[in-house]
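Chapter summary example.
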Amino acid sequence: MAEVIPTDRQYPKLSKATSGYLEIELFKNADLHTGYFCYNCAYFIKDHHCAIVEDTGPDVNAVESGVIEPHGLCTLWDPNEKETR
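The structure predicted for these 85 residues follows.
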């Protein structure tokens, strides 16, 4: 990602369901530096947030966790070159 997202204002975010977000518990302890996980996405804000997807609301499986999990993923994934191996 060549540009930095300005943090001086609030931006509208997509719902988890609209973004295709889901959490896969089987990957909770996986190496999150490889694969299409939120942890190594350019939009992920450590520890449990996303710059473009809401924390709250149901995901595509109607599960509501209240956070964006590092082992989650969505259709908007963009590699964070500093995290991805």
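To summarize the output: The beta strands are 22-23, 44-45, 49-50, 72-73.
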